Amino acid sequence: MLSFNQTINNRQNFILTGIPGMPEKDFWLALSLCLLYSFTFLGNVTILAVIKVEQHLHEPMYYFLAMLLATDLSLSLSSMPTMISVHWLSWCSVTLAVCVTQVFFIHTLGGVESGVLAAMAFDCFMVICFPLHYDTIITHGFIGRIGAAVLLWSVGTVRPVPSLIKRLPFCYSNTLSHAYCLHQDAMRLACADTRVNSIYGLLAVIFIIVLDALILLASYFLIFQAVLGIASWEERLKALSTCLSHICAMLLFYVPLTGMTGSHCFGKHLSLVVHTVMAGTYLPLPSVLSLTVYSVRTKQICQWIVQVFPGGRVGS
């Protein structure tokens, strides 16, 4: 009996979930995911290459955009292998090592994206509220330090999570709720006290997501306060238009995140298909939409895209 219990407690595999009871639908979801991932990869790589090659795009706004697109691309790629393998190849089993590695990258990159969005909000604040001091404060070195600080803060905060998962014994079901691994999803399968995991997970959310959200709210409060002080409506709209792409990207990150969290907490009555589709689109879809927003809203990128088509003209 002792040997049997040890075998169960040392379970090293998890089962990822496709569309419950509807395996014939997995192909179409996999096809949609492949299209989303392909568009995300090609679009992000193209714009990153344009920002690197075009000298006139070597400005703070485009450096922050490059950080955001690189993070979006990495976040999508971190979930792609298991999602495609589950929905297309029906390979649903992953080892504990693979699962905790994916947990680390997904949560770390989510924290990095949140931090980059907060840095971009500060950039908008400086553009609108202190335009005369912008060039002296938002330098290339400052942007590099911000990027390094965001990355190190997210890595340092999330780093204990894999160890906290590895220490848990899993002696009940080993079936996860999604086609990729998340900390809270793996934690619920443990047959031991998970209070340490829960407390640390909450602290990590506060130190990363909540802190960044407070920076965003404070920045936009000051931005709107400054904009309301402008007498002309045309000038107000012009000032706000500089932040429109960032506001859209911010909503595309926080709304799906809130939706996923809310569906786990309050959407237990929803169909499993709804949960699966939300989980499938939670990571790649915001990346695609954010890429589209910046491609359409950024004049220089639009001009470059027009030029690459046969017969394209900048004046178009």
Summarize this structure as a short list of keywords or feature phrases.
single chain, 316 residues, mainly alpha, Rhopdopsin 7-helix transmembrane proteins, 14 helices, 2 strands, disordered C terminus, receptor, transmembrane helix, GPCR_Rhodpsn_7TM
Description:
With 316 residues, this protein is an all-alpha fold. The protein has a single domain (13-308), classed as Rhopdopsin 7-helix transmembrane proteins (Up-down Bundle). Helix content is 74%, strand content 2%. It is built from 14 helices and 2 strands. It has helices at 2-9, 26-53, 60-87, 96-129, 134-137, 140-158, 160-166, 183-187, 195-228, 233-241, 244-266, 272-282, 284-297, 299-308; strands spanning 13-15, 93-95. The protein has a two-stranded antiparallel sheet.
Quick overview of this protein structure:
The chain is an all-alpha fold. It has 14 helices and two strands; from the N terminus they run H-E-H-H-E-H-H-H-H-H-H-H-H-H-H-H. One of its GO terms (molecular function) is olfactory receptor activity.
The tally of beta strands, per DSSP, is 2
User: What is the ordering of alpha helices and beta strands?
Assistant: HEHHEHHHHHHHHHHH
Level of helix content?
over 70%
Integer average pLDDT: 82
Q: Cα distance, first to last residue?
A: 76 Å
Structural class given helices, strands, pairing?
A: mainly alpha
Number of domains: 1
CATH architecture annotation name: Up-down Bundle
Q: Strands of the biggest beta sheet: in what spatial order?
A: 1-2
Q: Report the portion of residues in β strands.
A: under 5%
* Major sheet size, sense and barrel closure: 2 strands, antiparallel
Number of helices: 14
CATH fold label? Rhopdopsin 7-helix transmembrane proteins
**For this structure, what is the CATH class?**
Mainly Alpha
Q: Uncertain runs with pLDDT below 50, 5 residues or more?
A: 1-10, 310-316
